What we know:
9 strands; PRTase-like; PRTase_dom; uridine/cytidine kinase; ATP-binding
Amino acid sequence: MITGVSILRAGETMEQALTAVCKDIRLGKILIQTNHDTGEPELHYLRLPKDISEDYVILMDSTVSTGAAALMAVRVLLDHDVQEDKIFLLSLLMAEMGVHSVAYAFPKVRIITTAVDKKVNDEFHIIPGIGNFGDRYFGTDAPSDWYESDEGMDY
């Protein structure tokens, strides 16, 4: 069986397409947010289907910059007895740093992305990136100071 797990909030943007292709797929959610004081990821919410340990898991996040949230999400899945070689990290855009972080820590996790950008700025946003994909998709506004250091970037 296949289970899709979204890293909230932007990972949810992929759920509709996944359920359209895999009609009987089960879904789970993980909310991991970066602590702005420490820069460390923190787990705030977890809902996984029962008996996920036997499933192939498609872990969804629209963008992966440093890989910190993805690393924590993979650890959570491993803690729920999902086998590393049954985890697929699916992302629209990744930074090179995130690809290397995940691949080094979890070499059996399969990474699937449409593109890899080389740089991450001081706020850990992918450069040139695509801006905040969750805000774009859901039509919400990010605080304007998130983009001050990205002036002149073509999102």
